[in-house]
Specification:
Layout (H helix, E strand, L loop, with lengths): L1 H9 L8 E4 L3 E4 L19 H4 L2 E5 L8 E3 L5 H4 L9 E5 L7 H13 L3 E6 L7 H26 L6 E6 L1 H11 L6 E5 L22 E5 L6 H4 L11 E5 L20 H27 L8 E3 L2 H5 L32 E4 L10 E11 L3 E11 L4 E11 L4 E8 L6 E10 L9 E10 L4 E6 L10 E5 L1
Parallel strand pairs: 5-6, 5-7, 7-8, 8-9, 9-10, 10-12
Antiparallel strand pairs: 1-2, 3-4, 3-6, 11-12, 13-16, 13-18, 14-15, 14-17, 17-20, 18-19, 19-20
Helix pairs in contact: 4-8, 5-6
EC number: 3.1.1.3
Protein name: Triacylglycerol lipase
InterPro entries: AB_hydrolase_fold, Lipase, Lipase_LIPH, Lipase_N, Lipase_panc, PLAT/LH2_dom, PLAT/LH2_dom_sf, TAG_lipase
Length: 467
């Protein structure tokens, strides 16, 4: 994959000014803005629809395992299928060089939760090489728009009921389809591709004008040549989400350590794995969000650094959106007086969802000591979790505060136990306790306070009561 992108930079395409026209999808030029800009000096003309052979593979609750191939060219195939005009339609659109696995996983999860028309788009003939894929996606986008137009004209189906979910180049492909479809309901961009799309005009890339609502998840939003990224650095939706800062995802290997192995073949594999991991996390996050309507709460903030410092923890009065499938529930989703960036943290491995708490402990005790303090909390969901609040020098009278991204959704906290562990292996007479614990948790910054007047030895639980 690394070698292919380098080849893209060395490839000389056709000279600007040429045009091709195809029945059903219209005409395409290789002039501005498609070619000749700083970001797209080498792009060219797309192939014919016949050569690309775009396929629409339908899954419903009537046929969740075996697809039905439907075609707008022969609309009777739609009529004879399990396509339901009373259902929402979600079309999963891959990028280049894909095996279709994430699309199948997406349909499987969607159909567990919703009675929808789930369509997996297959344009693999036209997307095997990146340089060809960036040209061909215009024809495929026109094919998707034509498919929706047939639904409207032959089946009186509203375009507002169509949701395009595109990964990588598929996100820009969805934008192309949306720009041709007035009233399209929604586009979700899953780490829209960066190379050949950074800082391009909105006609070329995904843009908020392409649908009634456009939400974007960035997981590898860095420039390819400078930080080895596959995603675009541009915000391109009504809501742009940046999990873990949006650049490199926890659990995806770094590229520096393998260099010291001096094994070129192994390093090529590491590079490929690095791109695929970071870039693919976007659709992993989205798929998981389908099953977790209250997970992936994201906070508006100026920067990821400021978010991690806790400066943006409380949601503003208008609330916070959730990243992923239920982003469209945010009531201000299309209001953008000033573009906001939405940040959140995730786990290293699946399940990725995390729930943020701000925990403060006012410490009581008989001596300053070295140790760690933990809170064991229970909440309205019936689940419990144990979180470390501080470690090192523990000074009675001090208040210790920590932001916790919990891997368990305990809900609003209803019970708290304080536990501390001493770092010394020698027995001591030190005792500590939590005089007051304050928790701010959840999307609505629910605040709860618990108190106690007891102090305990190490490893003994202190039970606090609401105060």
């Amino acid at each position: 994959m690394f070698g292919i992108w380098i080849a893209v930079l060395l490839f000389f395409g056709t000279s600007p000014g040429e045009e091709v026209c195809y029945e059903r999808v219209g005409c395409f030029t290789d002039g501005l803005p498609w070619t000749g800009t700083l970001s797209r000096q080498l792009a060219g003309l797309p192939w014919s629809p016949e050569e690309i052979n775009t396929r629409f593979l339908l899954y419903t609750r009537h046929n969740p395992k075996a697809h039905q191939e439907i075609s707008a060219v022969n609309h009777l195939t739609i009529q004879a299928s399990h396509f339901g005009t009373d259902r929402i339609t979600r079309i999963n659109i891959p990028g280049w060089k894909t095996d279709g696995k994430w699309q199948q996983d997406m349909c499987n999860v969607l159909l567990k939760v919703e009675d929808v028309n789930c369509i997996n788009l297959d344009w693999s003939n036209g997307s095997r090489q990146y340089i060809h894929a960036i040209n061909n996606l215009r024809v495929v986008g026109a094919e998707v728009a034509y498919f929706i137009d047939v639904l409207v004209k032959k089946f009186e189906y509203s375009p507002s009921k169509v949701h395009l979910i595109g990964h990588s180049l598929g996100a820009h492909l969805a934008g192309e389809a949306g720009s041709r479809t007035p009233g399209l309901g929604r586009i979700t961009g899953l780490d829209p591709a960066g190379p050949y799309f950074h800082n391009t005009p909105r006609e070329v890339r995904l843009d908020p004008s392409d649908a009634n609502f456009v939400d974007v998840i960035h997981t590898n939003a860095v420039r390819f040549l400078f930080e080895l990224g596959a995603g675009t650095v541009n915000a391109c939706g009504h809501l742009d989400f940046y999990p873990n800062g949006g650049k490199h995802m926890p659990g995806c290997e770094d590229l520096i350590t393998p260099l010291f192995k001096f094994d070129l073949n192994a390093y090529k594999e590491e590079v490929s794995s690095f791109f695929e991991c970071n870039h693919a996390r976007s659709h992993h996050f989205y798929t998981e969000s389908i099953l977790n309507p209250d997970a992936f709460v994201a906070y508006p903030c100026r920067s990821y650094k400021s978010f991690n410092a806790g400066n943006c923890f409380r949601c503003p009065k208008e609330g916070c959106p959730t990243m992923g499938h239920f982003a469209d529930r945010f009531h201000l989703k299309t209001m953008r007086p000033n573009r906001a960036y939405y940040f959140l943290n995730t786990g290293t491995f699946s399940p990725f969802a995390r729930w943020r708490h701000k925990l403060s402990v006012k410490l009581d005790g008989n001596n300053v000591t070295q140790g760690s303090i933990f809170l064991r909390v229970g909440g309205t969901t019936g689940k419990t979790g144990e979180f470390e609040v501080a470690s090192g020098t523990l000074n009675p009278g001090m208040t210790y505060t920590n932001l916790i991204d919990a891997d368990i959704n305990v809900g609003n906290i209803t019970s708290i136990q304080f536990i501390w562990k001493e770092h010394s292996i020698l027995r001591s007479q030190n005792k500590l306790g939590a005089e007051m614990v304050t928790d701010i948790s959840g999307k609505y910054a629910y605040k709860s306070t618990f108190c106690s007047q007891n102090i305990m030895g190490p490893d003994i639980a202190q039970i606090l009561k609401p105060c």
